[in-house]
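lol ok so funny story. i was supposed to be doing the assay writeup but got distracted and ended up predicting the structure for this chain instead. priorities right. anyway since i did it might as well share w the group, maybe its usefull for someone
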Amino acid sequence: MGILDNVKEVENNILANKINDARLICVTKTVEKERIKEALDYGVKDVGENKVQELLDKYEFFKQYDDIKIHLIGSLQTNKVKYIIDKVDYIHSLDRISLAKEIDKRAKALGKTINCLVQINISMEESKHGLKEEEVFEFIKNVSEEYKNIKINGLMGMAPYVLEPEESRIYFKKLKSIFEDLKSKNLDNVDMKHLSMGMSNDYKIALQEGASLVRVGSNIFGRRIYN
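and the output, tada:
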């Protein structure tokens, strides 16, 4: 199957999920622009990049498409915020106060508000970034009160990689539970709208458990070798 067939298959799986209106974030990490173009010309509206430098390299290419939304989905170093603050629509990896402080400062200087998702380490793996479950409420409350140029739009998390996708369900259920609990708090400057979870190997399970954003790369562009 080619790229367009792969995109259509993922979109059909999203449409088949009746729980909510989820969106596909097409993960373009390490993918050549010519191949990304096939997906964007077809009508993909959301792209996700993991690394700041690669996002910068592709930014002008992405902006040829007026209605594209650019998501930074990888871990973000504080000293690199200044390079992407005016280029991204969503940051998925807000996980510490030092990062919130820098995002807020840079956004305020531009007179804009930046949409952020708070990353939670639901698998509790040392190799993954994100807050612990018990830290999340106080963190979000702090950000919402102190950093007015950040708009928290929801949560992001990753299940551990497993051979059987069904084993991911317990992690997605947990993240959905945290999401709903935070939503019920009605915190100022917080709009719990997006739940970003699920990747190529487990996005179908994530959809069943309430994902509103799924981050799919390999199932569209094929398996890639990451540095």
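The CA atoms of residues 169 and 205 lie 6 Å apart. The longest helix spans residues 169-185.
back to the writeup now i swear
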